[in-house]
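Before surveying the methods themselves, we first show a specimen of the format, giving the amino acid sequence and backbone structure tokens:

:::
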Amino acid sequence: MFANTFAAELATRIGSSVEVATDSNLVEGILSTVTAELVLVIDINTGYGNTKIYLSLDSINFIRFPQTA
């Protein structure tokens, strides 16, 4: 039940800068797409162009929305 609420809240923030933490990674980028099972973050800081990173909603420990100045 919480997963549906979590996905719905994330969907309202598409286009925002995010930091997504899993057990083994910290991903920074732009929140691009949210489905019931996956989150797509576009990592724009790699230096090799934009990298698409798909994360399972179940693997996310937390998401932070950093303030931009």
About this structure: The chain has a mean pLDDT of 90. The helical segments are 2-11.
